[in-house]
Amino acid sequence: MVDDEGWQAEGEVDLQNLEEKPELRLYPSLESYSEPITSAFGNFDFVTTTSSGIRVAIEWETGNISSSHRSLNKLSIVLAAKKIHAGVLILPSRNLYEHLTDRIGNIGELSPYLGMWKSMGASVEHGMLAIAVVEHDELTDDSKFPYLKTGKDGRAVEGKNKRIKPAR
């Protein structure tokens, strides 16, 4: 994508004027309060602008389920603000998830929230928010295809011990 099509990896989208600080009320005083913004959205995995001017941002999810929520929220915000025309989140299916690291974002765990993201479409005049679900072709226990090497930090050892053996 980067070399052949000119996409920008870790690409930025102009996020100026998106740092809206909604007015909040403290409880029990009901005093007006505005929480300072102390962190940025961060870059998108890939961005491009087509020859016809369509701006696209892609997030390829390899983190935990919280990262998937953050990615869709970030794409939704910049889409509603007309900073992009299309936002795409790529993540594994529920079946593929079982063979990856524990708690990686997947469509199964996002499914209860799809209605909320769909309802955000009312604030988008032109654009698309999409989720592309990646599935594996098949499983094998053929030794010619070893498992990917895993680390020894965090929960890697636990995950290695939980691997599901393919059915024969």
Report on this model:
The chain has 168 residues and is of the alpha/beta class. The chain is globular. The two termini are 37 Å apart. It has one domain (2-136, 147-161): Restriction Endonuclease, CATH 3.40.91.20. The strands form 2 sheets. It has a 5-stranded mixed sheet with strand order 1-4-5-6-7. A two-stranded antiparallel sheet has the order 2-3. A hairpin with a 5-residue loop joins strand 4 (44-49) and strand 5. The protein contains 6 helices and 7 strands.
CATH class: Alpha Beta
How would you state the average pLDDT, rounded? 83
SSE order in H/E notation? HEEEEEHEHHHEH
Total of helices? 6
Give the strand order, joined by hyphens, for the main sheet. 1-4-5-6-7
Number of strands: 7
Instruction: Supply the CATH architecture.
Output: 3-Layer(aba) Sandwich
Note the main sheet: 5 strands, mixed
How do you describe this structure in short?
The chain is of the alpha/beta class and 168 residues long.
